[in-house]
Amino acid sequence: MSLRLRTITREEHLAFIRTRPSASHMQVPSWGDVKSEWRTESIGWLDESDQLVGAGLVLYRQLPKLKRYLAYLPEGPVIDWFDRDLGRWLDPMLAHLKSQGAFSVKMGPPVVIRRWNAPTIKEAIAGGQAKRLRDLEPDWYEPRAFELAERLRKSGWLQGEDGGAGFGDVQPRYVFQVPLANRSLDDVQKGFNQLWRRNIKKAEKSGVEVVQGGYEDLAVFHKLYVVTAERDHFTPRPLSYFQQMWTALTAEDPNRMRLYLAYHEGEPLAATTMLTVGEHVWYSYGASANHKREVKPSNAIQWRMMRDSYALGGSIYDLRGISDTLDEDDHLFGLIQFKVGTGGQAAEYVGEWDFPLNKLLHKALDIYMSRR
């Protein structure tokens, strides 16, 4: 059965997303308003009865001085990735994007290929058995995801030599997730390691109070975020970015973005943002002060977000990106170490894939990006 692709309205796009149990927060129409430096378009696949059966948010980034674009579908599109006839989805998409002036297409199929449970990772770290997640036998894998990767390769889609490990991709290939479905909150807390449970209790005894904030509290979050950026050596986004994000996302759905702040004796010590689409909840941005870390505001705020995710009907609490390193000497090791304490799972996605519609311009972009 063939599929037809056309530009769809925001309303059509959002209505389709609402029929899905899960879709990336980067594949909702309002994400295009957050990424205002890109031109955006919602595209939809229709079956023979004119029913919308797939959708995607495309971000177009223009090449300097040329009316040619990189077309990017972050963590998308939302289609049937396990359809054996993948061409009926991707061929019309490529033809459409080429007609829009795209010279290259980048997409990130939202398909998990492997999962490792926290005990497996902890045992590997303790025993020094492996330096990387990929060296470990997974606790679960999806055979159809391997078939998908093979189909993409055969169709001319390209992936980096290392398969996009760690932070090489625009979006992380490895993430850490805490399953909430078919578990009680007691089950979730029992999955925490001793340090996490102790830190949550310490925060409670110390009088750390976690509150849900609003638009006016973004300035408090941003001050802590700038402190965090200085400490962790990254370039912070301006306050206006978060204000724009709040306005765009909450206009679409009041629970799409939430802000949490952890106070101790009236002083803000940590702050986080949380994003929700359907049953999938993400810890998005985190920030913390350099002092009073002994009262453990970061553990308190995470536990509050997990409880609220559960109350919202979430099936996954997603702590987002990790490196795949298990090497304690690696500067990125602390990320996985903190997140493994939640008792969740490391998940590997099939990664991001590129299709060069114009090989010369695509190669020029590759060279430019490698020099940045």
Automatic annotation (TrEMBL):
Q: What single Pfam family name could you report for this chain, choosing any that match?
A: FemAB
**Keywords in alphabetical order:** Acyltransferase, Cell shape, Cell wall biogenesis/degradation, Peptidoglycan synthesis, Transferase
Picking any one GO molecular function of the record gives: aminoacyltransferase activity
A Gene Ontology annotation in the biological process aspect, one of them, is: peptidoglycan biosynthetic process
The question of whether Cell wall biogenesis/degradation is a record keyword is answered with yes
Q: Which SUPFAM superfamilies match?
A: Acyl-CoA N-acyltransferases (Nat) (SSF55729)
The family line of this record is: Belongs to the FemABX family.
Name this polypeptide is given = Lipid II:glycine glycyltransferase (Peptidoglycan interpeptide bridge formation enzyme)
User: Could you tell me which species this protein originates from?
Assistant: Kitasatospora gansuensis
Starting at the broadest rank, the lineage of the source organism is: Bacteria, Bacillati, Actinomycetota, Actinomycetes, Kitasatosporales
